[in-house]
Specification:
Blueprint: E1 4-10, H1 16-27, E2 31-37, H2 50-63, E3 67-71, H3 78-91, E4 95-99, H4 101-105, H5 107-110, E5 116-118, H6 123-134, E6 145-149, E7 152-155, E8 178-182, E9 185-187, E10 197-200, E11 203-204, H7 215-221, E12 230-231, H8 234-247, E13 253-256, H9 265-278, E14 283-287, H10 294-303, E15 305-313, H11 317-323, H12 330-342, E16 347-353, H13 361-373, E17 379-383, H14 392-399, H15 405-412, H16 416-423, H17 426-430, H18 436-444, H19 453-462, H20 467-495
Parallel strand pairs: 1-2, 1-3, 2-8, 3-4, 4-5, 10-13, 13-14, 14-15, 15-16, 16-17
Antiparallel strand pairs: 5-6, 6-7, 8-9, 11-12
Helix pairs in contact: 1-6, 2-3, 9-10, 13-18, 18-19, 18-20
Bound molecules: cobalamin (B12) and iron/sulfur cluster.
Length: 496
């Protein structure tokens, strides 16, 4: 009988990492079960309830897995990961393996909870580990593995990156027994089946090195271990999407979660042609001002590009260059906005991280100025800065004397809700009240229909006047934007 492995993903009912691992274990004759523990929620995420942990306990008792793999993709919900880890320990002797970005960067801390940690890409390393344990063979030399030997933590080097991503196959829908625990309920079905969107990636790795992002840490980990940014073949992507289309009766939109969508013109040309004729659904991507090229955008729009989210993060060149490690100039950003509008990308969203300790009032004013120069139409996504453990910006904040290590740890390891609040919620908008007027003004730049009003309000703000009007206009436009978003979603659903 083949051995059983239970894989758990957190706050992400479509976790790609977990699905790739399931593929690899299944290919090696393991009986794989997937549990999505709670769904993605950027507004009001809650830690696990007692009922949810009881459901998990019962599930483990029913499945009786030999190994439980926990996918700790981000540090944001460690609170729940610890709860789940304890519940597993109280229920079974199954070996616990942690993988994902957090354990990759913090293997020693993770080994306080897990029996084993797999750093980096997990497909081959996880299979090798469970195989060796099953066959009672030595595990000491397994690349990517971190483990405890007596009282020592041993951290092995990582193996080279998988060069040809196609050999990993692609995630399948409802392919292995899948469970979903949310709102004190257990659903024994892949939540993907009834979803409106299908999510996938065409690549691994990001060419950039922003100081607030874990990508730079992963890149360093893999130095001299092969090309960091790799792309799948168009054939493999189309095959995955064809399967999604045939299995998902409500499918309306495709989400490509590549950190930055491919800009290789030859690849784009083949992808666009085949996507249009064989898939034909609207799709969304993430982009970067330095990767927006006319020829690429033109092809993508003709294939069905519906939405692009472009990270600008700050309108201040100084903040971008000297704090965020983003070299793009104001001109390059403005030019990229012109290309997106020229080729009529239906929804263009710019992402900004505001209200952090490095930012002065002048930086916010520069952000306002840049936004007024971006080609309309566009939408803005304004949020705070999440300090992520291990990223360069954490040390920079300490060196600059903005926060102490202890203060940063308190922020980075606070409750799930507090961390989300810093990023999306009221804390992101209220940290420095004196700057709120400028955040409101920045928000208003996206509305063409306000015409010259925004600039007039800005002139008032410069003279310390008009605060009440600015905040009132901000609130009404926020309501208006919410309504328009809803209408757009309904339209898309009907069209689809
Ligand atoms: C796509 C993506 C998302 C998508 C996910 C969509 C989906 N369907 O999965 C969305 C937009 C929902 C998302 C949300 C968030 N994300 Co995100 N996301 C990514 C991104 C760009 C790629 C992740 C991915 O799918 N990669 C492809 C898969 C195949 O790789 P993988 O998940 O890493 O899994 C592999 C290995 O890690 C390992 N592995 C993973 N799990 C396990 C488990 C075991 C047992 C083993 C052995 C191995 C293993 O093996 C896998 C296969 O090789 C990463 C960046 C990155 N380079 O990782 C950020 C990243 C993971 N996200 C990040 C963050 C912060 C978030 C949010 C908190 C953002 C927010 N403030 O709302 C949320 C949290 C959501 C959550 N529940 O985790 C951070 C996490 C950093 C940290 N230290 O916390 C990252 C690293 C980006 C960054 N800014 O640095 N994200
Ligand atoms: S472009 Fe995005 S994914 Fe790439 S390093 Fe910067 S923030 Fe991270």
């Amino acid at each position: 009988m083949s051995k059983k492995v239970l894989l758990i993903g957190f706050y992400n009912e479509k976790a790609l990492g977990v699905k790739y691992l399931a593929n690899s274990l299944k290919r090696n004759n393991y009986e794989v079960h997937i549990l999505f523990f709670k769904k993605f929620n950027s507004v009001n995420p809650k830690k696990a309830t007692k009922e949810e942990l009881d459901l998990l306990k019962k599930l483990i008792e029913d499945i009786k897995p030999s190994f439980i793999g926990m996918s700790v993709m981000s540090s944001l919900y460690l609170e729940t990961v610890y709860q789940v880890n304890k519940c597993i320990r109280d229920t079974t002797d199954s070996k616990i393996i942690w993988g994902g970005v957090y354990p990759t960067l913090f293997p020693k801390e993770s080994l306080k909870y897990a029996d084993y940690v797999i750093r980096g890409e997990g497909e081959n390393a996880l299979t090798e580990l469970v195989d060796n344990i099953e066959k009672k063979e030595d595990i000491k030399n397994i690349q990517n593995l971190a483990y405890t030997d007596e009282n020592d933590v041993i951290i092995n080097d990582v193996r080279p990156l998988v060069h040809d991503l196609d050999i990993l196959g692609y995630p399948h829908i409802d392919d292995v027994p899948t469970y979903f625990i949310e709102n004190n309920n257990l659903l024994s079905k892949d939540p993907q089946l009834n979803a409106l969107t299908y999510e996938l990636t065409c690549s691994r790795g990001c060419p950039f090195t922003c100081s607030y992002c874990s990508s730079i840490n992963l890149k360093r980990l893999y130095a001299k271990k092969g090309t960091y940014v790799r792309f799948r073949s168009v054939d493999s992507i189309i095959a995955e999407l064809r399967e999604a289309k045939s299995k998902m009766t409500h499918l309306k939109v495709i989400h490509f979660w590549d950190e930055i969508f491919n800009d290789n013109e030859e690849w784009i040309s083949e992808f666009s042609r085949r996507y249009k004729s064989e898939i034909g659904l609207p799709f969304n991507i993430w982009g970067h001002p330095l990767k927006i090229k006319e020829n690429v955008i033109k092809h993508l729009v003709s294939a069905g590009l519906n939405q692009i989210v472009v990270g600008i993060q700050s309108g201040s060149f100084n903040i971008r260059k000297n704090v965020f490690n983003r070299p793009e100039t104001q001109e390059e950003i403005i030019n990229s906005s012109k290309i997106l509008v020229k080729h009529k990308v239906p929804v263009i969203i710019y992402d900004f991280m505001l209200q952090h300790p490095f930012e002065s009032l002048d930086d916010l004013k520069e952000t306002f100025e840049l936004c007024t120069k971006l080609e309309k139409p566009f939408k803005l996504q304004l949020h705070g800065l999440n300090f992520l453990p291990g990223t360069d910006i954490v040390d920079m904040a300490v060196e600059a004397g903005h926060l102490t290590k202890q203060e940063l740890n308190n922020i980075m390891y606070s409750s799930i809700q507090d961390q989300y609040d810093m990023y999306w919620g009221p804390a992101a908008m209220n940290i420095m009240n004196k700057n709120q007027i400028w955040i409101a003004l920045i928000y208003l730049t996206q509305f063409k229909k306000l015409g010259g009003i925004t600039n007039r309000l800005r002139n008032k703000a410069e003279n310390g006047k008009g605060n009440k009007t600015i905040l009132m206009t901000y609130k009404s436009m926020k309501k208006y934007a919410r309504m328009m978003n809803l209408a757009h979603k309904v339209k898309l659903a009907i069209k689809g």
